[in-house]
Task: structure prediction
Amino acid sequence: MATKLKRGFIKIEAELCKGCYLCTSVCPLNLISVSDSLNQKGYYPAQYNEKGIEIENHLCKGCALCAIICPDIAIEVYRG
Amino acid sequence: MGKKILLRGSHVIAEAAVRAGCRFYFGYPITPQNELTEYMANALASLSDGVFIQSESELAAINMVIGVSMTGRRVMTSSSSPGISLKQEGISYLSGQELPAVIINTMRGGPGLGNIAPAQGDYLQATRGGGHGDYRTIVLAPASGQELADLTRMAFEYADRYRMPVIILGDGMMSQMMEPVIFPDPIDPKSLPQKPWVLDGAEGRPSRIIKSLILDTSAMEEHNWKLFRKYEVIDREVPEMEQFLTDDAHLAVIAYGTASRIAKGAIKRVREMGLKVGLLRPKTLWPFPKRKLLEMSRTITNFLVFEMSTGQMLEDVKLSLEGRRKIHFYGRPGGIISTPDEIAKVINNVYFKEGLERE
Amino acid sequence: MKKIFGRPKSLKDVVFHYCPGCGHSIVHRLIAEIIDELNIRGKVIGVPPAGCAVLAYNYFDIDMGEAPHGRGAAVATGLKRSLPDRIVFTYQGDGDIAAIGTAETIHAANRGENITVVFINNGVYGMTGGQMAPTTIIGQISTTTPGGRNKDRDGVPIDLSEMLAITNGTVYIERTAVDSPKNVIRTKKAIAKAFRVQMAGLGFSLVEVLSPCPTNLKMSPVQANEWIGSKMTTYFPLKVIKDTVGKL
Result:
């Protein structure tokens, strides 16, 4: 009996990010870190580390804790 | 048109407001205008769409007025001098937000707690904005029971037409006097035209904002000039002044409200003695009837300003006459009510001191 | 794959001016989500405060009317008495509601006005640069309490929500926070319940939200949230302060 695990991914809109890094502190799987390139506002935005990995191999479960705490609605969450 | 009713001044204002379609009143008790508040409590309780709240302060009342006015309905508050001071913040906001409202000030002795007797010490407060910022409010000065009814009706119409607060400047004497009054027919508030700017929930339309905050300085400047242009239009359309026995007058008394009633009595007395004296009675204190006054100064050489204060309308008279004629002043502040005889003596003294001709 | 989290419709497509990590942004989003979910955009009228959120009307796509500083509860009273079937809420900071606006707040509550008050408590006056607020805690440094708030000079922090619970006019008062995702979810539930209390015509409801002001606390957003969780909640415990309506 194989149950399909929920997998998810997030999109962080770098230009909306103000570098508060609350998302990095709440992700239970440490999938968000700080980018080393500035956005237009002059912040180092948060970045999601699973870009380029196949979704079946994502650790992200789409719990959305990052999006819930993000003040600037810079994160969209997808789950399937 | 109704029949003649004998009614106390405070009650006249309240009845006139209800008949103008006002269904919202917020106020706090203060002598000498409590009869107005109490009348509104009764009148609005008996109307299914009436709302009366005795607010916790005059400050709360003017803010409740702001809330109702945002929804486009006719609304009124009233107080007396110290309470009107509390409302200045709200009146400034109403002006910046361009919201209609009617505010009744039944003036009493001041400054500070003052006393409860009639006075005219709030003229500058009413006509110079009173609160902060570059604004004016229309100020109406009734001088009889009938005018309390008529000008209260006009106040609501001006407030709606020009989208601004309108003040009725009465005093303790006006409010307690009983005179026969004929009221106009009542207006059903539902028959009043819909206002296109109100807040009532953005169902089926874009959302609206009513505010006075304009952080961009160029936009703020434009808003201030927009208000100014509105006031210029009002200055052309609204000023009103009664002329009493001025056609052949050498001297005119200038007075408003209760002071004008006393002055009329004095003028009748001195006319019997052959003095050519008349009365000029502004009915609108802002906009002040300055052009009419200037016109009168072609034939009238002396003006005697009589106020129940130390001289406030006096400043507007001086500004209007631009130094062309002699201006005299007689004032009794603190709640003193002069007699016609007393004013007749004052007129006499000025008349003879100036060497004016008698019949 | 489907999108399970995005921008609510009742927020205009405008970037928030609030500081990084500011709680206002979160609560704005929660209120907009609630308005979407209850489908009441066409019936809501909001009253913003004076303070950083004075520009709330730039964000919410609903009718909004400005009140003078602190007078939100009185303006909301006028709005609700004129339009009893609309949903009227105020959004006020700690100075707005518990300093300059205390009388209007207490009396609207005492009259049982059927409005909803969202009280953003960040323990400081943000917009004016970080002065003491009525809810600044003892020892907390602000620009007008440079040595820390002192009980003898400045009094103790005011627990307005507990005071309002005493009057019969209030029916639902809860204190929450937005310092963690769990608390953000709790805050949304509380504000949604407060709106439903109003929609059921039950009386005055208020939700106090402990919210971070990292700029004036002079901390990072993560530190500010930790401060709320460990220090601020000792003065302002998170709990249902009053609930006479039960499950709604």
